[in-house]
Amino acid sequence: MVTNGTVQGQKRKTTVVATIGKWMPPHNGHKQFLVKLAREHDKIIVMIGSCYESGTENHSIPAAEREKMIVAIFKSAGISEDKYEIIPVEDTETFEEWVEDVKSICNSRGVTHFCTGNQEDILSVLEKKNKTLGFEMINPEINTDFQYHATDIRKMIIEGRYKDFENLIPPEVKPILFKYSFKEILAASRKKGVKIVKGRQTVDMVFLIRNISDGKVYVLLGNRSMQKVDFPGCLGVPGTAISKHESAIKAVIRACYEKTGLNIELLDNSLEPAIIKFSNVPNSNLEQLHFIGIYSSEDEKMAGTRGGSSHAFGVFVEDDLDKYEEYLSSSTELTDLKFYEINEAMSKKIAYQQMDMIKKAYSMFEAYPDFIKVTDEEIKEKKETFMISFIGSSGAGKSTAGLGAAYNLKLLGKSVEYVPEFAKRLVYDGTLEKNIPNQSYIAAEQFKMIYDLLGQVDYIVTDAGLEITALHSSRENEIIEKMVWYLRNRVKNQITIFIEMDEEKVKFENRGRIESQKESQRFSILLEEYLKKNNLKYIKVKGSVAAVEAAINAVEEYEKNH
Asked: Cα dist. 558→213, 385, 459, 555 in Å?
């Protein structure tokens, strides 16, 4: 029996189709056959030809932008990301080398069909040289009524004939095309385009952050290894060489993780800038990854001894600087990684053309709305509040330690306020059990008492660290748990002191608690496991006396470093 063209009991053969083009830019004819191929086959491999050609009339749009346009086409058509792969392919000296390169890509991905309508550059040459690619061939120009080529559209752009090509470009491609690409087409037509220099192709990433605590902009830099061929020991931004058949955006994401430890999750590359998230930084926001441009030079003093060009990207963040510094990790190639205040960075020697990249990225960043309008006077007036959070199970001595630490700090002449545990008030009101499922309410009330004091006093001491609320929330709602961690991490300077109950010296007191002593002991174990799971740094002590001593020592250490 035959069902849908398949003999019953037999598995349908998987088909993978490959196609290659310059897509400069992709038009409605391209969209028509790309979507058709994606729907008719199990997977489509889209190769971007001439990926390292740029700056001329025939090669005027960087491959990074062409890739975005293709992604936008698939996304608009509802083609899932697992149905396609986009691979850059560079030009070669001979046609034979190019054929072998394309065949190697196809063979490694199980390609069964190859689609091309390029008669002049591919089909006729294969026929003339009596060669085949070895796959079933599909010609997309058969049975199509689209009579235009990308060359025609570029000519219309150069001549300013918008109405002539307005309906030839997919709507989802236009935002990318008119962001930067059409200017590149115009520049190339006037012989002003940026050309990619032959040689080692690299990516560089300019990471800028406007720190919410002081309003200043910082850039992430590290020291290049002394073993480097070019610019040994100089400061540099994170970057790497692009691997064969690797796209620039994938290379910069890889470089970011390998060189800094920050893991970028690419959420949407159908836009410029792309939408990303730092997946290993807790409570990080949605961010944008900008394509800054291509930087080329044949001057060894700027480009080094190996030639090539850099494809530069930028990340612009407005957040707490400490949140990202905590997760930085240097590599052997980029050591002593840290954020430099932008004016300090501009005064230093920086490798390659990376100073130009930083300047351009900074100008782009400054053109954005400033989320935090902080004047110098406000910065001077605002205190840098340091918070000491005591956590532990019921009966461990958190309140005793909190009151004791606040008392001792006042004796030392410090500006300090004690923030009690909001949940304990609910115990005395008899409403805690009713409100336990409503951890967002408990967290908000607790944080409000802390937030009102930030910038008003030098020290806050609390016996109700929000880490405990986060643990309770983790059992109920992941969104509330993340919110609690977000609130907790909004305090820039803080230390957490975990108190283990000293059962030899302290008798468990039931009044004001809803847990028994055994339940409290179990909670202490769970709390410490939770802290470790979330990679939270803390000081562990036994009993309230040791906790007060640890708090005073932490204040002395903080003041010594500030």
From this structure: 17, 11, 11, 5
